[in-house]
Amino acid sequence: MDRVMWIQRSDARYPGGEGAGIETRHAFSFSGHYDPGNVRFGSLVACNEERLAPGAGFAEHPHRDMEIVTWVVEGELTHEDSTGARIVVRPGDVQRLSAGSGVRHTERNAGAEPLTFVQMWLMPGPAAATDPGYEVVRGIADGTPYALERTEAVLHVRRLADGERTALPDAPWVYAHAVRGAVRIEGETLTPGDAARISGAEGLAARAEGPAELLIWEMHTEPVYG
User: Fold this and answer.
1) Contact at 8 Å (CB) between 162 and 183?
2) Is 204 helix (H, G, I), strand (E, B) or coil?
3) How many Å apart are CA 122 and CA 143, to the nearest integer?
4) What are the DSSP E strand ranges found in 64-211?
5) 64-97 burial string, b = 16+ CB within 10 Å, else e?
6) Which band of pLDDT confidence, cut at 50, 70 and 90, is reported for residue 66?
7) C-alpha distances out from residue 33 to 29, 73, 81, 209, Å
8) Which of 1, 39, 43, 183 would be a feasible disulfide site paired with 200, CB 3.0-4.6 Å?
9) Cβ atoms 200, 192 nearer than 8 A
């Protein structure tokens, strides 16, 4: 696979959000927005930036056949679902909800401060378990890979000092999302909300321009339908 890198700027995301106090920015086709040329990248089918005012949230709704990973940028996310999980997710925590054959959940800002989080949806493999699953890793350490058991994808969380470099995974599909600060990849600078989609990634690195936080998806398969 030849290497190709495409940058999506934060202001190029599709605006969405339903309900008072909710602001959403979609990286891919989602809900009422459909672009046939932008439905997924590797196994990643959604990367939504969500901003919830105090008291705002998403009412109970269903999911199935999806791996949902959430990263809180600021504030606190209160999550409840039909697996019995009820938990508050804070910055530095990785939350995973495996929808399996079906799960229902709510997400809301029950705190007094604004909430911002990034939520990423990945398609599981054809042999994925059907039972829903839930996990929160508290305060994941910098550089610790978080592998999704139900799909061939790994999340790498990097918190970089000014001038620090981090190698990007060698993988068919790499998705790098800037959370804080600025990082430079192959002559392009990413600022918060920007993302790089790299196919055929090999021998690449990201360099921080000031303190930065970066979410990097390493993906080795594409969804299989039918």
Assistant:
1) no
2) coil
3) 21
4) 67-74, 77-81, 86-89, 94-98, 103-108, 115-122, 133-137, 145-148, 153-160, 165-167, 171-180, 183-185, 188-190, 195-201, 205-208
5) eebbbbbbbbebbbbbebebebeeebbbbbbbbb
6) very high
7) 5, 25, 26, 34
8) 1
9) no
Under 8 Å between Cβ of 5 and 188: yes
- Give percent of the chain with pLDDT exceeding 70: 97
How confident is the model over 4-58, as pLDDT tens digits? 999 999 999 999 877 789 999 999 999 888 999 999 999 999 999 999 999 999 9
Res 225: pLDDT: 59
CA atoms within 13 A on the CB side of 57: 17
Single pTM value for the model = 0.95
Pairing of strands 77-81, 86-89: antiparallel
Residue 220 DSSP symbol: -
